[in-house]
Amino acid sequence: MKHLLTVLALWTFAILPPVAAAEPAEPVVIGLSYPRTGHYKEEGLAQMRAALLAVEQINARGGVLGRPLALTHRDSAARPEKARANIDSMAAEGATMFFGSVSSAEAIAAGEQAKQHDRLYFATIGYSNDVTTEKGHRHIFRESTSATMTGRALGQYLTRHFPDKKYFYITADYNWGHTSESSLREHTDTLDSNVHPGVTVPFPNARRVDHVSALEQAAASDADVLVLVLYGNELVRAMRIADSMGLNRSKQIVVPNLTQTVLEQIGPSISVGTIGAEHWLWRVPEQENSQAGRDFIEHYKKKYEHYPSSASASAYTVIYQWADAVERSRSFATGAVQKALENHSYSLLKGPSQWRSFDHQNVQTVYVIKVNDLATVIGHPSRQDYFEIVHQLNGEQAAIGHEQWLAARKAAGQAETLQ
Question: What span is annotated as the signal peptide, if there is one (predicted)?
């Protein structure tokens, strides 16, 4: 009898249809266009590292709406035409949203191309005002701060600590350079170019002789403050030349957007005392008691054996904020995600931030920073304690107001709402 029951059980199992394995959920593709080569490749690498970490973490917790994320990426070399081609290529691959950039011109170009595909584009880095003013549209969001936000924060600090000083400006000849210089002049009361002169250097192909000539003019001036409105490799070169000329010892050097990745290329020893601004640095989570920020730093350090920069934080924030908007709207559709982001307030890697609805600017605290002396830098176990936060300005006070935004749009012949 026992033998018969065994045979029947085996026979029953044999004739039952096999249980179909659950089909894996189709991945959701997100696209990163970033400079892997060229002037800003270090900032690009920082974005890629953070993006990989964010995707890995989100997938480990079950993905977005039950679907895993897949990251596709292309090298833009920070060139607008390459950024446009990258968006087209990744759209053909099925990417549902895009992010990246270091150059403002690159961000604008990529955002315009994303609009053609009815996809959102998040400018991780791109400080020129026009990214979210004259060139703004409903498909682009900017995570980093604007030139106005930087100028207002720096202006408060410099006016207080360097009153009645003469300035000399050396500026990269493109949108970011011009809007950054204009904002800083306005907020330091240095608009009179006869008293506070300046020169421009070509962008993006400035030669060493261009920087030498500009710095020689600064050295010959009676300026107390030297403002280098430069970025990436061009700032690295200019700072090294300034050091060889002793300008970093005879004048106060100010760099509107002074990032960790650029400082590491310059070398902290020749940058001691340089003043700049940032929208995030790894000291911020500790200062603002952000547990998510602390966790991000620890996970990043464990994975890459390096502290994250603001470029890393921007890319990481963009992916998490997009994923959160998808979850809250229960949709991957561009319009639904856009609406979920607009006027959404959150705290992730720092204190409160908001995606503003009328211009899609991320409104957040701006930090004025000063490069530490070498003993402080190397005294920290990381040997990356580069900056002291000497002042900060909250996002609402720093960001351009609605009336000013409308005036800029009207002057450019743009609609009064994002289109």
Answer: 1-21
